[in-house]
Amino acid sequence: MNTIALSLVSAPVALFGYAYAGYPLLLRAVAALRPMPLAPTDPDEWPEVTITVPVYNESAGIRQKLEELLALDYPVERRRILVISDASTDSTDEIVREYADRGVALLRLAERSGKTAAENAAAAHLWGTLVVNTDATTRLLPDSLKALVRAFTDPAVGAASGRDVSVGAAETASNGGETGYVGYEMWVRGLETRIASIVGVSGCFYAIRRELYDASFPENLSRDFGTAMAVRERGYRAVSVNEALCVVPRGGSLRAEFRRKVRTMQRGLRTLWYKRALLHPTRYGSFAVMLASHKLARWIAPLTLPPALVGLALLAREHAAAQLLLVLAVVGIGVGAIGMSWPEDRRLPRLLALPAFALAANVAGIKAWFDAMRPGAGRIWEPTRRPGLVTDSATVSPRG
C-alpha cells in the first residue's frame, strides 16, 4: 500500500517538475550549444499583409484598436485591415464602417459561429502574402508589426508569434500571478525558437504565410495552437519574435481568467488530438518532444493531483512528514480557494495571489479534460473582457 501511495504522490512531482523546470533547463542546455542567431534585417520591400481582427460585441474598445492599427509603423499601401464580426449585436459593426475610407473592411457573419469559423470565413477576403491576426482587447506598439514581419525574411519561417506582456493597474488587478506566468511562458518560447520551433503561437498577435492559412480548420478547435503544428507539417518552423510586443491587459477577475483557461485548454486538448500525428518522434523529431513536453505534460499534470492527495492521506497514517505535507496541501488549497472567491472589485492581496492562481490553473486543467470530452462544449467564442489599456512604449521594454 505504501508503494502505491508513494507512486501517487510522486507522479505530480515528476510531471510538474519536468514540465515547468526540467524541460526549460534542457532547452537552455541545448540552446547554449547553438550560436546566437543573427537579427533579421528589413526586407528589400515590405510584403503586403492583411491584418485580421475577429470581434464579438467590442463596441467599447474597437475604435481604440483600429486607431492603433492605423498608426502602426508600416507602409499604408502594403497593409489592409479586415474586421470579422461574429454577428455582433452591439454597435461594433457601425463603428468599423466609419473607417471604410481609411482601409478598414468589415466582414459580418450572418449568425454567430465562433472565432475559428470567423477566421475561416476571412480566408476568401485575404490579400497579400502574410496574414496577421490580433485581438480587439490587446495593444500593439507602433514598431511591433515590422518586427513580426522581419521574421519572414527567413524562408524557413512559416509563422511568427509576438511576445505577450501582461500588464495592468495594481489597484484593479486581482490575478497578479498571471503576469509572472506569461513572462515565464515567453521565456520558454524564446528557448524553443533558438532550437527549432515553438509549439504554439500567441493568439493575440501572430502572422502566417498566406499559402499556409487553412480555410477549413475545424470550428471547435484552436487555430492559435494549431498554427504552429500546421506549419511544421508543411516543413516550416514557427518562431517567437521578442521585439514584436503585444501588451495584454491583465484581467481584473481571477474567475474570468479561470473560465478563459478552461476554454483555452479544452480547445487545446481537442486540437492536439486532431494533430496527434505530430507527437511521433521518429517523424517530427525534436518538435514532437517539445510538443509533448510543453503541452501534453503540462495538461496531464493537474489530473495527478487528486490521486496524490489520496496517496498523501494514506502515507500520513504512518509517517509524520506526510502528515505535515498533507496539512500544508490542505492549507494551500484553502488559501487558494479564498483567493478565487475574492470580490472582483477589490485588489487581491499578494499573499493570496500565487496560491489562488495556482489553484485556478489546476482546477481549470481538470475541468478542461471533462469539457474536451463533451461534444459541442466551448464551440461558441466568448472573448475575454479585459480592462482598457493605452500602450506606452516608454514603459514596456522589448527585452522585458
Lay out the secondary structure:
Elements: H1 2-32, E1 49-55, H2 62-70, E2 79-85, H3 92-97, E3 104-108, H4 115-122, E4 130-134, E5 139-140, H5 144-150, E6 157-167, H6 177-195, E7 205-209, H7 223-233, E8 237-249, H8 254-274, H9 281-300, H10 305-316, H11 320-340, H12 350-372
Parallel strand pairs: 1-2, 1-4, 2-3, 6-8
Antiparallel strand pairs: 4-7, 5-8, 6-7
Detailed description of the structure:
With 400 residues, the protein is of the alpha/beta class. 47% of the residues lie in helices and 14% in strands. It has an eight-stranded mixed β-sheet, with helices on both faces. Helix 3 links the parallel strand 2 and strand 3 (104-108). The N and C termini lie far apart (49 Å).
Cross-sheet strand order for the largest sheet? 3-2-1-4-7-6-8-5
Uncertain residue ranges: 169-174, 389-400
CATH topology name, in short, is Spore Coat Polysaccharide Biosynthesis Protein SpsA, Chain A
CATH top level assignment = Alpha Beta
Q: What kind of sheet is the major sheet?
A: 8 strands, mixed
**Dominant shape:** globular
Distinct helical segment count: 12
- Quickly give the structural class: alpha/beta
Overall number of domains: 1
CATH architecture, by name, is Alpha-Beta Complex
What percentage of the residues does DSSP assign to strands (E)? 5-15%
The overall average pLDDT, rounded, is 89
Assign the CATH superfamily.
Answer: Spore Coat Polysaccharide Biosynthesis Protein SpsA, Chain A
Question: Can you write the helix and strand succession as a string?
Answer: HEHEHEHEEHEHEHEHHHHH
**Care to count the β-strands?**
8
- Measured on Cα atoms, how large is the radius of gyration? 22 Å
